[in-house]
């Protein structure tokens, strides 16, 4: 038998329960050492991988070496964005990776990757109901059993010796002044700091999250009644019958054609707009409503083109759906162009970057819907592919230094540097954090006498230098910025 096929991490139920208790206790202590009262940084990456290793050690079923290594690699890759800088997107990706590791250790991962998003959804939906289940009741029953063996049994065996030892020590202190003086000299103030309410709350939160990962569960599927399913199917056939779909698609394609021709003329063709309206106003008023329109169109297509429905069997309806999806994709591209025109006139913000990414994701999702119809795939395949695209987009956004990108764009397109656009918004650059310092340095090269920019730059520099020097708070983004600042200071000298 090869090493890759050798089963590992196999344990009996009782020993596995004790192992989970010990791993939970050790991880809570490790979290206190790494995370409590510390700035987030490298400590999040280290703790996430420690949790992944602990989950594999407490595996419910025997795992082969290759599967255990794959799950550990999944947790490692998912936590890499936390090295760049702690962000909500990076934490979300890391939690998704740890959820996959937990499901894999519990033997709950599906064999087909297309079912993974629904399994993760069932895992998340099961979380609110877990505290109200009978797990705590079973633990209390185990504690009451005199035949129970393991960690709890040994801990209970220490109650009597420690109680009598404390009593004897108090008697000895009363009888021996040396012992009394030694006991009085012991400083126990650190225990008060250790047992602060914030610290205990932190322990409880970490223990609650870890207990969910150590004992994964999935929300049970509800069986649909056959009669209810027949009613739903009949309603869908009535609302989305062949005639209704054909008429809807003809009307929708005509309406979208008008909007598409207007965009082709004014956005892509550069035609002159009516008096009193600029291209920026035309772009800004249409970007976000058109995205809602595309989303509603996607929902309509998914409902109308369900497998085996009236729309799926008609060649004419399928052709009109293909044409409508193509117009929706062009609509998304027009929305991106609208946003680009608006940003060129005004400035770039994090919300506008998020809007551009969202528009691109909607266009890709519509393309996936078209592929699903052409390839005759299931909605499960569509959800899995769309979820994978969304996860990769979040991963890239968590790694990229978006504040630095925004600062460089706004400085380069400001009225002071380019002669066009709007005046540089220093308050917004200050809100972006120390990542904006290189862009401000570029500004000061062209206009070194601007005192307001230098004041903002000095404030951001103090914020960067005020970071904790502890290795647990280290981030690659901050270290990279420190290296750039040291290099610029050496060149200046």
Automatic annotation (TrEMBL):
UniProt keyword list: Membrane, Transmembrane, Transmembrane helix
One family name in Pfam for this protein: DUF4153
InterPro entries registered for this protein in UniProt: DUF4153
Membrane-traversing stretches: 21-36, 42-58, 65-83, 89-109, 158-179, 191-214, 249-268, 288-305, 317-337, 357-375, 382-406
Top-rank lineage group of the source organism: Bacteria
Protein name listed in UniProt: DUF4173 domain-containing protein
């Amino acid at each position: 038998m090869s090493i890759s096929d050798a089963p590992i991490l196999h344990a009996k139920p009782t020993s596995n329960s004790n192992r989970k208790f010990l791993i939970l206790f050790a991880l809570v202590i490790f979290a206190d050492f790494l995370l409590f009262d510390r700035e987030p940084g490298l400590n999040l990456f280290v703790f996430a991988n420690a949790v992944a290793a602990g989950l594999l050690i407490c595996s419910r079923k025997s795992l082969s070496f290759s599967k255990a290594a794959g799950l550990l690699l999944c947790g490692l890759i998912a936590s890499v964005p936390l090295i760049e800088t702690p962000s909500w997107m990076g934490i979300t990706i890391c939690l998704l990776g740890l959820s996959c590791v937990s499901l894999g250790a519990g033997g709950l991962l599906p064999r087909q990757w297309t079912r993974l998003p629904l399994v993760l959804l069932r895992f998340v939906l099961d979380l609110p109901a877990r505290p109200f289940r009978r797990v705590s009741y079973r633990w209390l029953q185990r504690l009451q059993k005199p035949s129970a063996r393991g960690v709890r049994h040994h801990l209970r065996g220490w109650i009597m010796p420690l109680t009598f030892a404390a009593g004897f020590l108090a008697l000895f202190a009363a009888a021996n002044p040396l012992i009394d003086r030694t006991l009085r000299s012991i400083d126990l103030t650190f225990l008060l700091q250790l047992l602060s309410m914030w610290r205990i709350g932190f322990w409880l939160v970490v223990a609650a999250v870890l207990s969910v990962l150590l004992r994964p569960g999935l929300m049970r599927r509800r069986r649909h009644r056959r009669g209810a399913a027949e009613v739903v199917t009949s309603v869908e056939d009535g609302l989305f019958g062949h005639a209704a779909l054909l008429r809807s698609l003809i009307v929708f394609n005509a309406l979208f054609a008008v909007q598409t021709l207007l965009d082709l003329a004014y956005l892509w063709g550069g035609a002159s707009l009516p008096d009193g309206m600029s291209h920026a106003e035309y772009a800004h008023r249409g970007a976000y409503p058109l995205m809602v329109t595309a989303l509603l169109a996607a929902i309509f297509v998914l409902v109308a083109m369900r497998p085996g429905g009236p729309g799926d069997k008609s060649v004419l309806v399928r052709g009109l759906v293909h044409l409508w999806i193509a117009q929706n994709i062009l609509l998304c591209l027009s929305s991106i162009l609208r946003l680009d025109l608006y940003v060129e006139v005004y400035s770039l913000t994090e919300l506008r970057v998020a809007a551009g990414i969202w528009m691109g994701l909607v266009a890709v999702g519509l393309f996936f819907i078209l592929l699903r119809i052409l390839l005759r795939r299931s909605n499960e395949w569509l959800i899995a592919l769309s979820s994978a695209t969304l996860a990769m987009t979040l991963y890239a956004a968590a790694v990229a230094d978006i504040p630095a990108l925004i600062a460089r764009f706004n400085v380069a397109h400001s009225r002071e540097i380019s002669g066009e656009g709007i005046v540089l918004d220093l308050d917004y650059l200050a809100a972006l954090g120390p990542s904006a310092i290189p862009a401000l340095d570029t500004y000061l090269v062209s206009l070194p006498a601007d005192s307001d920019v230098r004041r903002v730059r000095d404030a951001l520099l103090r914020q960067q230098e005020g970071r904790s020097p502890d290795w647990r708070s280290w981030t690659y983004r901050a270290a990279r910025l420190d290296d750039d600042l040291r290099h610029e200071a050496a060149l200046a000298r």
